[in-house]
Design goal:
By secondary structure, this protein is of the alpha/beta class. The chain has one domain. Helices cover 15% and strands 27% of the residues. It has one helix and six strands, in the order αββββββ. The strands form two sheets. It has a four-stranded parallel β-sheet with strand order 1-6-4-2. Strands 3-5 form a two-stranded parallel sheet.
Length: 79
Amino acid sequence: KFLIILTFIGLTTISAIAQNCNCAITLDSTIDFASGTVYNYAPGDTICLGKGWRNHLQLRDWSGSESNPIVFINCGGQG
């Protein structure tokens, strides 16, 4: 539930400048499924959703902590 809330907040309220989003990882618009077990990231990292149109995006197995959450932001697109 926490990840879903973070994802919703990140996708709807955070605006980022495309040139400097401070992304640990950028998920390209061609990706429709992203498992945290595949990517090298750490709690507190920012995961960016690259600009482009998506039918859907399913996120699984991403772990942060209360003090170092994983933050998903829309980087370079429209929010």
